[in-house]
Amino acid sequence: MLKYVLIGNSTAAVGCIEGIRSVDKTGPITVISDEPYAVYSRPLISYLLYGKTDEERMKYRPDDFYEKNGVKTLLGVRAEKVDDSRKEVLLSDGRRVPFDKLLFATGSRPFVPPMDGLDTVERKFSFMKLDDAKALGAALRPSTRVLIIGAGLIGLKCAEGIRRLVRSIEVVDLAGRILPSILDEEGSAMVQKHLEAQDISFTLGDSVARFEGNVATLKSGGKVPFDVLVVAVGVRPNTQLAADIGCKVGRGIAIDEHSATSLADVYAAGDCCECRDITTGSSRILAILPNAYLQGETAGINMAGGEKTFDNAIPMNAIGFFGLHIITAGSYDGAAWTQRTEHAYKKLVSKDNRLKGFILIGDVARAGIYTSLIREETPLDTIDYELVRQKPQLMAFARGQREEMLGGKRE
Amino acid sequence: MKRVYVNEKWCLGCHLCEYNCAFANSGETDMAKALQNVTIHPRIQVEGDNNVSFAVSCRHCDEPICVKSCIAGALSVQDGVIRCNQDKCVGCFTCVLVCPYGAVVPAPDGHVIRKCELCTNNRFGEPACVKGCPNGAIVFEER
What we know:
The structure holds two protein chains of two kinds. By secondary structure, chain A is of the alpha/beta class. Chain A is 23% helix and 28% strand. Chain A has three domains: 4-109 and 236-303, FAD/NAD(P)-binding domain, CATH 3.50.50; 118-233, FAD/NAD(P)-binding domain, CATH 3.50.50.60; 323-406, FAD/NAD-linked reductase, C-terminal dimerisation domain (Enolase-like, domain 1, 2-Layer Sandwich). Chain A has eleven helices and 26 strands. Chain B is an alpha+beta fold. Classes of the chains: A alpha/beta, B alpha+beta.
């Protein structure tokens, strides 16, 4: 009987467990995590502070998930080292856990750049884990002035989550515009305006030169007094354990379409990995929840002796702020087609007869039809691209294709 | 498993399925009361032009990418039916991002999503769109 060991206990691990159990109903699975919680949805921490969910509803799987799947959990303990020759994981409490198949689902950690005087700031927080959200929430008062460093997905979801709990929010970012990883200039400007209408202020193209207690002095010379600091500059993948045993590591742990690392019997999935983005052809970290699940599931099935490939990963995000919904996917290198109305913005990017990327702000209905065109690399001359550009619809497909999609025809 | 299928050749594009869907999921017992002066948000949507029309609703995929992508663990498969736990859904619309059929729709208030659950979640118990289709274009069958 194969022994499976998973380091990490979030989305990728759940995908892996469900993948393993679709093939192997009995092989013992052990999950190791330094977090003392059963699996919860990490991306919901901003919704927790917003009051849209609670710890009970944040549970990513039902309470009996581990028991039903025959999983032993070792929580609140760190995996310190992997002994690849003896096929054991060494834990922080001295225990050793033997494995036949190993998964790294180690995720990422906040990146805190060196900033002068950061140690003089009394109340500073990251925003990644449940404990981060709890600690931040406990520090907030109606009179609190919050300074957020980072106008990316994490920083801005944090801003939305805490907006109604505090007096003011100032967001500072070195980049000249918000959400540069998913939006173009026009989209950034539109969303920034929407956030400013909620009384969130921005100082962009600037950074903190130094902190002196509760005052940040910016490179431009401006001073920002604050009570609470949130650093949301970026994240770094947790690759050390894998690198130590000789797994090929670039920016993240390198995996192939089977979620296999460069070492036999060792797999990896989720935010700690880099994989091929089909819209650019390059290898990169795609730290999004769907990829974590799909890579984890793929790993699990292959670890258990099944056959599964996941070979069409793309960057994609669905995110919203104060009722304004944004859906984006792919890359924006190619011929752009845009449409702007008072409340909505749309951009489709095509190249080499394929849809490569899109941005939808405001009106996101049926966006998945676009996403599917990217992931399936559908040749645009086989559909009515003109029609689908106006509105995502299945009418744009040839009747035969539609019969396959909707008629229940199996391959 | 039985699923809802539409025969394009017979679909008249009358949109009645959309109204039956909205009524079935309204919780009301009187159709007029349920739909009068209301903008409907049906879980089945008719597409097409003057020549071709067809209705689209959740395919209840064997490999449901919406379930695998759900950031909240709100979507799950129960006896083959893909269901949404409205309590857990936070309305991030990742399922809208990934559904290749465009079959997941935002709820009217935009805070959660809605999708076809084959009327297993309302008092009809079997798909109202199928039952009410005047031309027999929408069927509920094993394929």
